[in-house]
Amino acid sequence: MSLPAKMNAMVLEGHGGLDQLVWHEDWPVPVPTEGEVLIKVGACGLNNTDVNTRSGWYSKTVSDATTGGAYEEVDESDPTWGGRPITFPRIQGADAVGVVVGLGNGAPQNLLGQRVLVDCWLRDWSDPKNRDKTGYFGSECDGGYAQYTKVDAKNVVAINSSLSDAELATFSCSYTTAEGMLSRAAVGADDTVLITGASGGVGSALIQLAKRRGATVIGLASISKHEIVKELGADVVLERAPEDLKAALNSAIGSQTVSVVADIVGGDHWPSLIDALERGGRYTCSGAIAGPIVDFDLRTFYLRDLTFTGSTVVAPHIFGDLVGYIEREEIRPVLAATYPLKDFHAAQTAFIDKKHAGNIVVVP
Fold this sequence. Notes:
The protein is an alpha/beta fold. Helices cover 23% and strands 25% of the residues. Strand 13 (258-263), helix 7 and strand 14 (277-285) form a beta-alpha-beta unit. The longest helix has 13 residues, at 172-184.
């Protein structure tokens, strides 16, 4: 196949506001090296990691909620998910879907021409469970906000699905994040799971994946999004931040407590989430879009025998499991909107505004 030398790409040129994302129409097409594949991108989903990395929100110098805007001060030593500097320029975009159009030496020949999903987690494949040796596609290497991208062949899985590229691009980041959270919390059929931010990408994934495990699901979402949250399978939907969460739970399910809280929001409402956990309950977290600094009463934690788990790097098997769920139609995409890649600023603005349900996707 004849490939172009140049491509369109949305390139992040530094930490800051949307102005740091610059459109290029003459960016070099990447060349796959040993063991890598070249992918012609069909679609790429947006996620919070892109926004937080661009703005530098992960830095410990930042204590605000995620806004997507520039911060006055960002410590250049810890502005990414892994607490390390990022190299610019960088093409972001973790949730890439496309067709393999080129192979580096040693890459499996059978991948050529296959439609694939990209596993976001970059690993040392000689030590794949070592979290200290992980990176993220679109952060530690260039990602999918371009016409072409490359990645280790071990980070792609061919998929057999009637879903469109845009629909498939809603899965990788959000659903592996959600499955990682539920796995850490050992969620099963006997659990009642309270999910914050239930209408977003990770929230909608948490609903479907918790229901897949047989759990009872309670979603917290703004009233305008209650219908879609119900359609995704939530047994109960409550206001995003009830004034009295325990009373709202008691009215809805006849109990003031739940066994699991799956949280991606944090913020001022956080203490009420912990108060709503039953004795021996589990809290799992993979985000803090409403604010990372919370009021934490250690007495609640230890006197109630609670278990807290942070969840970022997922187990290596989770991505393959997710592809199986998709192919067997055990979960479904929630595609909120599709934008041309050139209109990325508008797409990310809509993503930050959080007026949508599910995921937003760009297409080259």
